[in-house]
Every structure is written in structure tokens, then in C-alpha cells.
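G.,

No rush on this.
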Amino acid sequence: MVVEIQKRPSNTAAKVALTGSEQLTSEGGAMIAMSGDMTVETSINKKQGGLGKRLLKGFSRKLAREGLFLNTFTAGSNGGDVFLSTSLPGDMEVIELDGSKRVKVQSGSNVANEQTVAMGIAWEGFKTVFSGESLIWLEMSGTGKVIINAFGMIYPVEVDGEYVVDTGNIAAFEESLDFSISKAGKSWFSSFLGGEGLVARFTGRGTVWCQTHADRAFGARLTPHLIAKKK
């Protein structure tokens, strides 16, 4: 599978070239276009395990604010292309897994992955309740490529020690990193009046992928205009 990221960073699309009979799994609704002999099969969870287990994983993804269904694209005998994008304008990135690490992906940031990549559910505990983010993250493991997206530009940061990221600007991070939720400033007064509020403090060694915009903040700014227009 060869992935070409196009038109980045503001209106990015991923062109995925598959060899004959090669497969790709994506979130529902991510496809823009595909080769004519490409076949698509919709399922709840890549047909891993029994129906009950797949349903459980499907509803767990819903709790992580992802779609219930996944689409599996299978190329024809001569191979083919699939173009993928997302609902919000922004960047996309390819993460290569080699079997030695796991990557946790924030809600709404997963786009697609190779069949050799396993998708699980990661529970980050109640520390994320107060951050306004999802309690459940997607956990990617195995070998192969994972395509993620971001609202705005996406960029990786190599952490060695401690690094602070606003809770709304996390796209993904390696499992080798731990994080805690804390105030941005020295006091709660300065943190909230300064507009930063809560942040995630990552510790350890690994990569965190950040996005330049937060969809939650964008929605909060946009909503009053939509309500006024409706009236």
C-alpha cells in the first residue's frame, strides 16, 4: 500500500494505491473516489471475532465518537486507487507501525489503516472527563500504515521528558507516553482568564501528533452565528 498525501495542509486528501487484491479499512464516509473495479464491504469491526464481540467494539467506537461501521476496500486483480478525506478541512498524516509500538488516536482523528493493523479501544480513565475530551481512544497496533487527520495542520513532536499540549489539540500519541490533565498556568485564575484552561502534560519518550486547531473551540465560536441566522 502506497499513500500519497495531497493538497496539504488545509484541504488534504490521501491517495491510497493498492496492489491486486490488497485491502484497506476506513471509517465510514471517508471515501472521495475509487477505481471502478474496487469492491467495498461494510462491517462493524473488520470481522475480527464473533458478532457479539464485533458489536461491542463497534459501540465502543461510538463512545469514542467514531462511526459504528467500517468500510473495507479490496482492489481488483490489477490494483487500484482510493481517495480519502474527512468532514472538517485540515491535514492528514501517515503513521507507520512496526509491531513494537502502539498509537492512541483521539476521537475523530482516525481515517484508515492497513488490514495488518489491529484496532482496539484504549481507556484513559476519568482524568479526561474534565478536559472535555472522550474517555475512550482508539488504539492502533500491529504492523502497517495508519492514516490520521487533524483540524488544521498536523505536526509531530518528539517528546523526551515533558511536553504540554492543549487538550483540544491532540490528534494521536504513542503508548510509551503518559499524560495527566492539569491547569495551564500557575493558578486556576490565570489559566481560565488567559483562555488556556486545561492542558495535557505528557511525560516519557515518544511522539505526540498535534493539530493546530481545536474543533470544539471552532464549534463554540460558530454556534452563536448559526443560531442568529436561524432566528
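When you get to it, here's the other one too:
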Amino acid sequence: MNRNDLRRVDLNLLIVFETLMHERSVTRAAEKLFLGQPAISAALARLRSLFDDPLFVRTGRSMEPSARAVEIFALLSPALDSISTAVSRAADFDPATSTAVFRIGLSDDVEFALLPALLKRLRAEAPGVVLVVRRANYLLTPTLLASGEISVGVSYTVELPANAKRKVLRRNAPKLLRADSAPGALSLDAYCARPHALVSFAGDLSGFIDEELAKLGRSRHVVLAVPQFNGLGTLLAGTDIVATVPDYTASALTAAGGLRAEDLPLETGSFELHMAWRGAQDNDPAERWLRSRIQMFFGDPDSLA
């Protein structure tokens, strides 16, 4: 196919194809693209004619791509990223007048402790923009970025899509939270003897602290696991339960009163908070502005270098 032949290709069809590759479902693709299922089915029929291939074969409730579809997707996805980048570079962005919708993914600790300050700044600079926040973590962020459901995510991350970019925002030291009035810091023995609360998205009863304690031949007893940080202060109030949380979360929780924070009675090192974003939107003026504000309000001073 030469460049002139591209005139018969509808770019919208390629967007539908990419979405079907991610969703493997006509229903979910329709929801993602805000279209009706008949429109997606019609687009799929045109795609099959265009590429002279079935592209997707239904297996149970899922649609599995053909070998040809996988080959097309490998070539098409970076091409669409390049088109998106080319178009975005030509667009101006004025925060004061923009009505852009930004879709970001935040881990619970970030949403609770860091989002309020960012939101105040966004309201002051760009009162017309809309912010959609999705819950993210190291498991969810890669999928949300790859599917385009978010353009940027802030959480601890491990693996990311091949075209994603990443930056360290903070290196955090965990803090111990307690609501009791006993004087002095807890010793390691007292820390291990206390009942513990754990914030866990998946409902786990152990975390990295338990790994560090195991290195010392010690352990702790978790008596409460909750899915989010909001309300943790109320749960600890009037009890001898302690919690280990990121330092920025500890600051937000102690600011409300009734809790105090102290250093842990063991060495744990620091852990990283990352900002990851879609490579296709690396040079988008609006996204660059948003990422600069995220770094300003979520990052530590070292991240601004």
C-alpha cells in the first residue's frame, strides 16, 4: 500500500481495532469509545474487509486475536502514538481557558495525602479543566496506561508498557503511627508486641515491614487490614493498635489530630513513589503542564532537579 492508498483508510477504524485488541470484547470496546455495540460491530466488519482477515475469533466470552491481528497491532500501536504526538505538538494549551479532561491514576496513599494540595492549585490555575481519578497501584497502573484509560499514574510501579515513561517523585521513609499517650518511642520489642493495622488494596495481612522483621528473626501481629487510608486515624483512636505508613501519609493523618508519628525501631530503607505516563503524550502541552503540577505537589525537592 502506498501513501495514496491511505486515503481509503478511516483512522477511526484503527482506533476501534486498537481498543478491541485491549478489551477483547465488543461490549467493553463500545463502552470505552462511548459508541453503541452495532457501531463497533460494523467497524469490525470493515476492518476484516480492509485487512482480509477475521482478526478476532470468539472463544467463550472473549475475542482472541488472530496471528495477523497481533502482527498488525505491533505495527499500528506505535504508529498511532506517533500520530497522537504529532497532533498534540501542534495544539496550544492555556490552563486559564482550557476545558480539558485529565484522567489520572493514583494509589490510595497518594490520593489521600497529596491530591488535596494539587487540586487547589488546579482550581486556581485551570478552573475549567476536569480531573478524573482512577484507583491505581503497581498491578493496575500498567493496564490503565496501556489501554489509555489514564494518561499518567502515580504509585509505586514495577513493570510498565514498553512505550511508557517513568520518573521517581519521592523516596519515602515509613513512619509509625500511634494514638496512645504512653511516653517515649516504641522499642523493637514493644513494636512487635503491639497489634498492627495494615492498609492493603488486596486484603493482604503482610507487607514489606514483615519482610524486614523476618530478616531480624522477628514478626508482628496484624489485627486489622483496611483497603484505604481515609479513616485510619479514627480506627486507631482509643486503641493500642499501631500502623506503619508512608511519611507523607503520616503527615496528613497527624495533621487532623489524635495521632502522633515517630521513626520505626528498625532500619527499612526508603521506597520510591513513581510518576508514569504514556509515551505518546510525552510532548502534549496539556499533559506536560499536568505532569509539572503533579511533580510540584507530589514530589520532594530532589525530584525537581
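The domain at 175-269 is CATH 3.40.190.10 (D-Maltodextrin-Binding Protein; domain 2). The CA atoms of residues 282 and 288 lie 7 Å apart.

Enjoy the weekend,
O.
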